[in-house]
Amino acid sequence: MHNLIRRNTPSIFTAFVLETIEKENGKSVYxxxxxxxxxxxxxxxxxxxxxxxxxxxxxxxxxxxxxxxNTSIPDITEAPVPEKEIKxxxxxxxRVYLNYCTYxxxxxxxxWDEWEKEIDFMAMNGINMPLCTVGTEAVxxxxxxxxxxxxxxxxxxxxxxxxxxxxxxxNICAYFPLTDKNYIDKRLELGQEIxxxxxxxxxxxxxxxxxxxxxxxxxxxxxxxxLQAAKPWCNFPSxxxxxxxxxxxxxxxxxxxxxxxxxxxxxxxxxxxxxHENKPMGKKKDYLHNVGRAIDxxxxxxxxxxxxxxxxxxxxxxxxxxxxxxxxxxxxxxxxKADETQGFWGHDFVCGRIYNFGDRNTLxxxxxxxxSNEYLSVKEKYPNVCGAGLFPEGVxxxxxxxxxxxxxxxxxxxxDIDSFLRSYAKRRYKSDETCLYEAVRAMYETCYSxxxxxxxxxxxxxxxxxxKLLHTAPNDTLEIRYSNARLFEGLKALLSAEExxxxxxxxDVCDLTRQxxxxxxxxxxFKVMNAYYEKDVNTxxxxxxxxxxxxxxxxxxxxxxxxxxxYHNLALAGSSALDEKEKQNFELNLLTQxxxxxxxxxxxxxxxxxxxxxxxxxxxxxxxxxxFFEQLAVFFKKRGYKTETRKQYCERNxxxxxxFYKNYEKFETNWLQTVTPAEPSEEDTVELAKKLVExxxxxxxxxxxx
Length: 706
What we know:
Four Helix Bundle (Hemerythrin (Met), subunit A)
């Protein structure tokens, strides 16, 4: 803990005294107090002391740390001594953090600099059980080498960074596979650093388990093994699974776990989701029961203190019931399964929320739902709930929502929203101007209102154009469930501040402007389509031209924020590689994830991980919309022209389902090979946002008056 404090606040490091205190009624606790001119941080463990430290920084130094602006604690030179003691008891025993997908969307290109800050951030927010998968590439590689795979053969099985998390979940394999063994060793070193720091701070890492996925070629080595091709997931090539009841399952699984212990350590918790988002190899209850016993036996034989960690996303009752109580921890990652399963039939479980799919940068979520502290109501019904979790697919959006989501992980009551908003605005923007509170209040009343639960708000800008659109991607909606004019008022309030400062302020100015203009474009799309069907030439031309102009201006705005540009993120992907071949591979990892997200020609997840980023809009999304409007203009007088495909998947068009979308496919696949995004601009974000507010106000305000 001393080192954590020194890393984050070196100028006031000597102002703190750490004390170890006893738990209260078996629950973790922390205190913040003053004594003899020092700040005393008390806690029953290092994590509790880290929470006390962050509580002090928030309450006495006005600190707000986020993944979106304000990513580091500023240099603090004064440490006021508390006049009274703060004491906080933590009801939630296990505070679990991260989703496999986070490692593909947000963390794929991170090095130790980013991870060191993230681990400190976890500790300060009370996380004590993070999912840790960095370095698992090396576990797979060296396990396969022990099974006599060549170096190239082992590399070819391991998917690239943008897709490896889905391989760990058992959905895919060998997609944009690795080509450089040196990268494997680099990831191992990083994984070892992460595990070392996580455990030093008293966290328990959740490590990777084994659920049966193996290379198809292993059949050549074990000809009598019961292997089966799993049903293709999202049109990816079939994965190969060894039957958990076959001796090879125990042999390979033990080798994998032992190699992981050698390389990364063993910490008793092993993540494993058999048949994740897929059908089991056998349907009968007895078979599934035996699968549960086989997997549990694998872990128990390897580690007598092992606990199997399973997502509730696609669990099977006979598998769950086969595992003895105390040997299974279920992660209800979207708090949907507890009632369906009578509280998971008595097993320990953690209730949590995802909050985001695909790391899409849309403002969305219900603060009321978070503030209610769902853990407390679940605890009343199911005393076997043992903690809370935060399981986002991505963390690079919605800073206000995530601040409350982190807070509630360790809250022992409901959160007062008004007090939270006032404190948040003051800390994030370094000013207590009323207009800043009004800005976050407007966000609460719009994009973070009770109406914004369930499906995320999609982006019409990033949607693959069609004459009929319901979604940008699976799991979202193009319905705007709040007043864009009211959100615009919040943006104007934010821009009216005279004393606001800091990176968080500039980020939010950009982000709110982005959302307001994106919502405006949404309404314009429907005006364009209505004008097209009504054969209203003037409205069609005005609305489509305005739509395209918004895209141009929005791209320029986003180019002022480095982290919101394709150029910057593409450079990060490339710099993670150690040779030129792998660099090209990693860049394709990122570009494919952002766009096609699946097998070329047959993707069903296209645009799943859409981003309103500078460079993405100008080189990709805008090009598609230009082409679409031109096509409509050509057929303007033709009755009944539609681009929708006859078949639909998740209420979306088949990727290359007709000649119209085959032309799009050609553009998109060519873009993967040729895109050269512009560098971020030096233009001032706030000043440009003010110009755009003035430019588009007349189009936004009338919408609320119609």
